[in-house]
Hints:
174 residues, 5 helices, 27% helix, Nuclear Transport Factor 2, Chain: A, globular, alpha+beta, nine-stranded antiparallel sheet
Amino acid sequence: xxxxxxxxxxxxxxxxxxxxxxxxxxxxxxxxxxxxxxxxxxxxxxxxxxxxxxxxxxxxxxxxxxxxxxxxxxxxxxxxxxxxxxxxxxxxxxxxxxxxxxxxxxxxxxxxxxxxxxxxxxxxxxxxxxxxxxxxxxxxxxxxxxxxxxxxxxxxxxxxxxxxxxxxxxxxxx
Length: 174
C-alpha cells in the first residue's frame, strides 16, 4: 500500500514534476525574457533550481555583491520575479554548474523512494519538493512532508547518484 501511494506521488503530474532539469533550464535560458534580463544583470549566477510536487520549475539567480536573488518560474510562460534579499546564513551561496549534474531527476527520485521504503516506511508521505543546489558539490536535496508533520530529507550527489545523507525531523511541535 505504501509503495503504491509513493508511486502515485512520484507519477502525479509527471510531465512537470519529473521533467528534466536541463530541459527546463534550457527553455529558460533560450527565452527572450531571460536573455533581456541577463544582458542587464551579468553579475548574477545560477544558484538553485526548485520544484514542488504539482508545481513548476523555479530557477534562482544570485548576485553575491548585492546579496539578492532573482527567481524565474518556468511553466507555460516564464515569470520573472523581482530581486529579493536572501536570508543570512553561514553557508555561502555558490554557483550551480548544470553541466556537472549527470544524474537524472527520475533516477534521484527512484533512489529516494528506495531510502523511504528501507528507512521510513511507517511515515505516510503527502508532499515532496526538490532543490538542486551546490553545497560543496551539486546535490538533489529532496524533502518529503509526512502526514504526522515530520520531514524526511534525502541528499543525493547529483554527479554520482550516491546518497550523501538522510534524516527525519519533526516539522513543528504544538
